Amino acid sequence: MLDIEGTTSATGFVVDELYPYSRKRFGRLLAERAEEPAVRRAMTQIRELLAEPGADAVRIERALGAWLDEDRKVTPLKTLQGIVWSEGFASGELVSHFYPDVVPRLREWHAAGVRLHVYSSGSVAAQQAWFGHSPEGDLRALAERFYDTENAGPKLVAMSYETIADDLGAESERVLFLSDRPGELDAARAAGWRTAGVRRPGEPYYGSGVGDHPEVASFAELRIGTGAGAAGAGTVPGARTGAGPDIGDEEVRRAGARLAAEAARFASFGWMRGTSGNLSAVLDRDPLRLAVTASGRDKGELTADDVVLVDGAGTAVAGTAVGAGKPSAEAGLHARVVRLTGAGAVVHVHTVAAVAMARRRPGGIVFGDLEMLKGLGLPAEGATVRLPVIANSQDMAVLGDRLEAAREPRMPAVVVAGHGLYVWGADLLQARHHAEVVQWLLELELAAGRA
């Protein structure tokens, strides 16, 4: 059972993009479509909540605005938001957000026969629109059922989770709930569910922790299945069950070939001059293993053998014949990015635009109202996003701390001042696309000459 805000997706996207979008459209919705059944029912519920039977559309719109400001989880508010958002997604004005570690895991679990469902404070209509219009396409087939505060009940009440389990016909102890909110996790556990807190830096509840619930930083850390060893069948979500399968030389070599092809592409753009830059791809997560381009090699002439297998600290794994070279010291930062974001690949390039714009805007570079933002899973209109700029350091632990503190959840990239650009994605292809989009944005700002 999946929560959305703060769990699968960035709360900041909902608050910064979707809330203003609905606020601007409530007035017209209430004035022109008050007789539609869903709108009429929501307006009646709002009048009851206000204890004002005669409240007109203007008064109701004002109440909706106040609830938005307070981030109230009020059912009729969520219903009206769902109507507005569904139409925004359908028109292409809105594209939802998912953390890069989420969709690959959902597809993996679905393919393995795990039943996936959604329980969010947003209306069912909004949830379905969210899953139906993601940067990865229509994901609704991955989720079997959707629940909200209207068809299940408040998320902080144990009875709501009992209602859902009854509706699913599932034994409570075989249902796993993923959420970032401690109160929701407590309520689910009180109903007999298994729980795991998803604690992502930058999210509103990050500082609150997840109490005594098992904690993960991304979906990449979860191991869920349908057999006797499944999370819902006796094991603790997120618990490590072994060292993972051995990674053979041929698997490393195949990864090296993919990395070499991507490096040649970036080198042809002039983004990896000489021996600068490095790329990585995740080969295993338990324990973490990455294939990283070897240090000191011309990135335009790499072969499948110019790769090193490293562990979660960025240290070369002993006993691997492939990759006679050594990994860059920056391999440790690649591993840190993977652990932090759940990414499947990391790209580090040295572009003039990144270094030049970091000098102009050391506090970060803001982009908005650009069609190219769709390449990052953001809407083309009415949205802004910040590309963080952090100070350089030769100490990867220090640099990793700076990246973690500055990271913008909706921006899969960061600029290291005087150095270059780090970009990541769910896999090498998405990391490449993200790198090309971010570089285009930087080149635009550089060409515009804005200070």
Give the gist of this structure.
It is built from 13 helices and 14 strands.
Question: How many separate helices?
Answer: 13
Order of helices and strands: HHHHHEHEHEHEEHEEEHEHEEEHEEH
Q: How can the largest sheet be summarized?
A: 7 strands, mixed
- The helix fraction, in percent, is 25-40%
Structural summary, described in words:
There is one protein chain. The protein is of the alpha/beta class. Helix content is 39%, strand content 13%. The protein has helices at residues 11-32, 37-50, 57-70, 75-91, 102-111, 124-132, 158-168, 182-190, 249-268, 331-341, 352-360, 396-406, 428-448; strands spanning 117-119, 145-147, 176-179, 194-198, 215-216, 278-285, 288-293, 307-310, 345-349, 365-368, 384-387, 389-390, 413-416, 420-425. Mean pLDDT is 87; it is low at 227-245.
Task: Offer a few descriptive terms.
451 residues, alpha/beta, 13 helices, 14 strands, 13% strand
Helix/strand layout:
Elements: H1 11-32, H2 37-50, H3 57-70, H4 75-91, H5 102-111, E1 117-119, H6 124-132, E2 145-147, H7 158-168, E3 176-179, H8 182-190, E4 194-198, E5 215-216, H9 249-268, E6 278-285, E7 288-293, E8 307-310, H10 331-341, E9 345-349, H11 352-360, E10 365-368, E11 384-387, E12 389-390, H12 396-406, E13 413-416, E14 420-425, H13 428-448
Helix pairs in contact: 1-3, 1-4, 2-4, 4-6, 7-8, 10-12, 11-13
